[in-house]
Amino acid sequence: RESDAFLLQRISYLSKSDEERRKPTRKERKENGQGGIVQAFFFCMKHKQLRFLLISSMLYLIPCVATTTYQSVMSKTALLSEYDITYALYFYPITNALMTLIAGLISDRKGRKKAAVVMSICAIVSYLLFFFATFYGFQPWLIGLLAGFFVGSYWSGSDQTTTVMIGESAPTNFRSSALAVQ
Asked: Got the DSSP string for the chain?
């Protein structure tokens, strides 16, 4: 079954003569304008939701360097051996993948915004737990699981905020340009 909006648009289009179909109105030309980084930038600055998504994505990407520090945290904080670090990193992909799956499920059921918020909270909590587990010398497998929780939840929240929500908020002709602006 087609959506009501599609049916109305299709009926409107089919009720026009051939000449009217070929000649777009000024409004249609403006709405269907092609993207471009300059046009997309001005469009994003005028559009409230896109403007705040761009700001939040910039803030969200600032701590991305933390996702590359888990190995140095393990080696410097608790002075784990190379064997222990390697052993911990065997468990890292398990929880990383689990957080990606959970983010997708939350996003589908509750929405993108809630998924981004939940993943952001999980990233903060799991990084703190990872740091303290490493500092107090917990088992390497637990440290690896916590590192995966952190990295998986951080990047899952980042995907929601920086690409999915911006892409879905921008008009079709400006999607790639809005992502380029971001």
From this structure: ---HHHHHHHHHHHTS-HHHHHS--HHHHHHT----HHHHHHHHHHSHHHHHHHHHHHHHHGGGGGGG-HHHHHHHHS---HHHHHHHHHHHHHHHHHHHHHHHHHHHHH-HHHHHHHHHHHHHHHHHHHHHHHHTT--HHHHHHHHHHHHHHHHHHHHIIIIIHHHHHS-GGGHHHHHHH-
Q: Which of 120-129, 142-151, 159-168 has the lowest mean pLDDT?
A: 159-168
Count how many Cα atoms sit within 13 Å of the Cα of residue 14 in the half-sphere of its side chain. Answer: 6
180, 168 in Cβ contact below 8 A?
A: no
**CA 173 to each of CA 27, 29, 49, 165: distance values in angstroms, whole numbers, following the listed order:** 15, 12, 17, 16
In whole angstroms, how large is the CA radius of gyration of the chain? 23
In angstroms, the Cα distances linking 81 to 71, 78, 128, 144 are 11, 9, 21, 14
pTM of the model: 0.71
pLDDT, one tens digit per residue, over 22-59 is 766 666 655 555 677 888 888 888 889 889 989 988 88
